[in-house]
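Quarterly update from the structural biology core.
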Amino acid sequence: MIEPEVKNKLRFEDPLEPVELYLDGKKVISIANITSDSNDQKDFTPLNELISLRTLSLNCTHLNLLEGFPTLPKLRRLVLSDNIISGGLEALANAKLENLNHLDLSNNKISEVVVLEPLRDLPSLKHLSLMECPITKIPNYREDVFKIIPQLDSLDDQDR
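Predicted structure, tokenized:
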């Protein structure tokens, strides 16, 4: 079930039109909820049809599952902060987000460096934020993150 507020934000005459989408503070829970419209009434535009998106913000949306993240070929900035994501980042790599440059995972439940390994398959990823995640309490976590994601230029707003 998708909230009416979210559906309203996902209504577009032309799915190629939006280049930015902000669903901050809306209850999404799972990417699958906004990736397909299973009813015939077509009362919102599924996220996977918004292929011109350059910025997608899902801050504070109760998001815990990224499974089924759509291929958004032009996406450069993805904000997933203030959610309850603890893993499943392979969904982003599987989505072939080849232009994704900035990923904000601040204040999520990420507690192990190994969870971040799929991000090495995002060739354009240069900026990653993990601020306020449990992983930041691990001594030398920055060095470990830079090792597994060698293309990064900055982590938590600090240069390599």
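The beta strands are 20-22, 55-57, 77-79, 102-104, 127-129, 154-155, 158-159.
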